[in-house]
Amino acid sequence: MKMHRGVRAGVAAAAAAAVVVLAGCSAAPPPLVPTHSADTGALREAVNARDIMDHLEALQDVADANGGHRAAGSSGYEESARYVEEQLRAAGYNPVRQHFTYRDDGEEVETFNILAETGGSDEHVIVVGGHLDSVRRGPGINDNASGVGAILETALRMADSGTEPANKVRFAFWGGEEEGLNGSQHYVDELSGSETRQHAVYLNLDMVASPNGVRFVHDGDGSTFGDNAPNGSDEIEDVFVDYFADRGLEVLPTPFEDGDSDYTAFVKAGIPAGGLFTGDAGTKSGAEVQDFGGEAGVAYDICYHESCDTIENVDTDLLEEMADALAHATIAFATATPAED
């Protein structure tokens, strides 16, 4: 995750295009109606914290071997990317690197996103994304190997199941997030107007295993924070909220904060967005402790952007809950149908 946030409550075509998005330049298609009743039990059962932790341990090993971090443009990022690509290829995907450059403290950084997709119609593309890079001060295991691990495991288990979704699902692992959301912004900037309109949903996972965490869901309908989220974002919030409610698990809304995570470029482009988050440097309240446990007056993640954001800095129960919710939402939108005009 890029900034401190005190929260309270055809891949090849995409990689090659060079048209800057002008959000709202033409009418967007009706939002997708997610399949709330979709049978996601098999995928959720297959996606488990034990296997996700294997990915996190691999990324910890990468950081340990590369100066203690996995920052964009570094050898640690390259090795992290190779690990993700190898996992995806072994499952039958064809991951593609989307290269870009940006400037950080006057230096040009060369890095890339990783994109891999399922079959299905590209008239309604579902993007599931999280940033792969860490800050230079630490290995970034909660921020954001946790999100990467949940996304990667969802992709792998979907491939194992042989599921052929009606709508294409594109799994995205963003580079350069920590220095300005560069990877996700580049991806959106490279979409043509028609490609932008084909992007039906963006699901973001950024920090989903905070050791003193809360189950936060982005406020897609604006009922709590008044966000101007694109039409259809409310459906994403509903899918997550309903999923947790069915399991007797409390959630709280969290705002879309401009410049805070990779949903920003999608929201500005008018693409429905949502996702999950368990907290960063913000302080946990007493009221939150009543519903979620943990310790009041302490940060959700005391190791946020620090060297102690290691494999020991993970709540595995929370990680599994959030990963299962992602698996459910991914299938709900992969099997969704367009709303009637």
Description:
The chain is an alpha/beta fold. Helix content is 37%, strand content 18%. The strands form 2 sheets. It has an 8-stranded mixed sheet with strand order 2-3-5-4-6-9-7-8, sandwiched between helices. A two-stranded antiparallel ribbon has the order 1-10. Helix 8 links the parallel strand 7 (216-218) and strand 8 (252-254). Helix 3 packs across helix 5 (141-161), helix 5 packs across helix 11 (316-334) and helix 8 (233-246) packs across helix 11 (316-334). The longest helix has 21 residues, at 141-161. It is globular and about 50 Å long. The model is unreliable at 4-26 (pLDDT under 50).
Structural class: alpha/beta
Q: What proportion strand?
A: 15-25%
- Largest sheet descriptor: 8 strands, mixed
Total helical segments = 11
Order of helices and strands: HEHHHEEEHEHHEEHEHEHHE
Round the mean pLDDT to the nearest integer and report it.
91
Cα distance, first to last residue?
Answer: 37 Å
How do the strands of the widest beta sheet line up side by side? 2-3-5-4-6-9-7-8
Radius of gyration: 18 Å
Q: Which percent bin holds the helix content? A: 25-40%
Number of strands: 10
Outline type:
globular
Low-pLDDT runs: 4-26
